[in-house]
Model the fold of this input.
Amino acid sequence: MHSKKALYDTIGDNYDSTRQPDPYLVSRLMYHLQPQPGKCYADFGCGTGNYAIALHRQGVDLAGIDISMHMLEQAQTKAPEMKWIQADVNDLPFDDGHYHGGVATLTVHHWTDLSRGFREVARVIKGGHLVLFTSLPAQMRGYWLNHYFPQMMQRSMEQMPSMEMLSAAFDLAELQIVAKEKYFVEPDLQDWFLYSGKFDANVYLNKQRRDGISSFRKLCPPDELQSGLDQLQQDIDTGAITSIRQQYTNDEGDYLFIKLQA
Done:
C-alpha cells in the first residue's frame, strides 16, 4: 500500500501538465454510469481529480477518493466545492450503500488487493453501477511500444489485471458485468496516458509527458529507456516508425470500459 501511495505522491508533481480529462472518455463514462439527479457517486482512485471534476461539471454529485493526499490537495485546489476524501480502496470509511454508483479510471492496477478492493467498492455502492476504464495485458501486447521498451511493457502487462483476474474478483465481490466497450486511441486524445502516443511517437520523447505515465516513471530500466528513446528518435527521423506501427495491430482495442452492477 505504502509503495503505491509513494509512487503517486511522486507522480503527482506536475501531473496535470500532461494528464487532462479527455472529452470523449468523459462522455463514455457518463453514458455507462447514467447518473441520476439527487443521487451521489464516487470516483475511486481519482488522482488529481481530473475526471471527477469533469463529471461534476456535467452535473454529477460526485466525491473523489484517493490514497494520495498529495494528489487530493491538487484536486482540492482545482475544485474546492467538491468532496475529496483520502482513503484506501481496501478499507473504505463509508456505510453500506453510501453511494449510488461510481467510476474507476486507470486505477485498478494500483490496487494492492483486487478482490478486497472490489468487495469494498461493491459494498459502498450496493445496488448501483461501477464503470471501470482500464487496459488488459491482451490489449497491451498490441502496443508498438513493445518494440522499443520490451522490459517496461512486460512489467506493465504483469501489473495489469487480466480479464480472467478481473472476472474472478468481480465474482467474489458479487459484481455482475453489464456491458463491455473497447476503446481505440484516437489522434485527438487529450489525456497523455501510456498509449496516448499511438499516432504521435514524439509524445514519448517529451520527458514531462513521460513523467506523468507510471510505466515510464516506475517500470522502465534506465538503460532501456535511453536506448529505446534513441532508436525511436532515429525511426522518427527516417520514417521507419510507420512500418513499426503497422506491425502492431489489435482488434481487442487499446483500452476497455467495463460496466458492473453491484
Q: What stands out?
A: Confidence is low (pLDDT under 50) at residues 1-13. DSSP finds 13 helices and seven strands in the chain.
